[in-house]
Amino acid sequence: MNDNSVLKQKSKSEKYQQSALLPAAFFSKSADSSFPVQLSIYILSALNISFIFLIILSLFIESSAVDILNIFKNMNVLSAFKITFFSLSISALLTIILGVPFSYLSSRKNGYVNKMINILISLPLLLPPSITGLALLLTFGNRGVLSYLTGNLAFTFGSLVIVQSFVMLPLFIHTLKNSFVEINKNLIEAAMVEGAAENDLLFKVYLPLSRRGFTTALIISILRAAGEFGATIIFAGNMSGKTQTLTTAIYSLSQTNLSQAIALAVIMLSAFLLPLFLMEFKIKK
């Protein structure tokens, strides 16, 4: 090896060492210089928490125990409770039946077609509620695309189930799929070596190892559907005793009796908080 080649290699080595050391110049070694950044992070985090907390707190401040008790004497509200419960129960069951197999299949595929399907499945998460309601109306309503098969489902109990299932499925699928993807691949391969069939993989490997993911997916999708308003108003309407849910009942009460609307909002908010606490503190992986 001649002197020129040795010098070139030495020069390259020195340049590499210098480039490797360059990032260190961007990091401050002084605690004093990092303090303003740390302080800013804490201040902005506190503002974020305060922003959300104060908005929620305002409902509790403006509500009263008397109004909350009186809300249970309102027959329209009690009917809305019943309709919301039964429609969400059916929608949740449909979401599980349709969502679990698709989440399983999607977690095991990664091709171009699967990516295009994932984009389609994600679309309901991004659509404005007004567009969702209009699309459902044009699909299942009078003279809708599928009305010759289903009849006119607009402004019926069935329309509530369709709306809720439509908004629940994407959230449920994405959450459960992410949980499936995180499963240790060695466990899956070991099960396949032992001769596990598809149904064994799904029911004896994927679902048992994704209990937290499944429960979380179900809870957040139910809460999302329970709070749906825009699509419900357009496609299902707000008919008391027929299609009025708790969310649309709050809207109706806000036009006539604001104190009762606030009381119902507090009850609904409290009902939302309970499963969130369970997800954070009780559900184990």
Mean pLDDT: 85
List low-pLDDT spans. Answer: 16-22
> What would you give as the CATH superfamily of the largest domain?
MetI-like
- Count of discrete domains: 2
CATH architecture of the largest domain: Orthogonal Bundle
- Summarize the biggest pleated sheet: none
Share of residues in strands: under 5%
Counted beta strands: 0
Query: What would you call the shape?
Result: globular
Number of helices: 14
Oligomer: single chain
What name does the CATH topology of the largest domain carry?
A: MetI-like fold
Secondary-structure-based class equals mainly alpha
**Whole-number radius of gyration?**
27 Å
Q: What's the order of the H and E elements?
A: HHHHHHHHHHHHHH
CATH class of the largest domain: Mainly Alpha
C-alpha termini separation: 60 Å
Helix proportion? over 70%
Please render the helix and strand layout as text.
Elements: H1 3-21, H2 31-62, H3 65-71, H4 75-108, H5 112-126, H6 129-140, H7 147-150, H8 157-181, H9 185-193, H10 198-209, H11 211-226, H12 230-235, H13 246-256, H14 258-281
Descriptive account of the structure:
- This protein has 2 domains: 29-62; 68-281, MetI-like fold (Orthogonal Bundle).
- Residues 16-22 have low confidence and may be disordered.
- It has helices at 3-21, 31-62, 65-71, 75-108, 112-126, 129-140, 147-150, 157-181, 185-193, 198-209, 211-226, 230-235, 246-256, 258-281.
- Helix content is 79%, strand content 0%.
- It is mostly helical and 285 residues long.
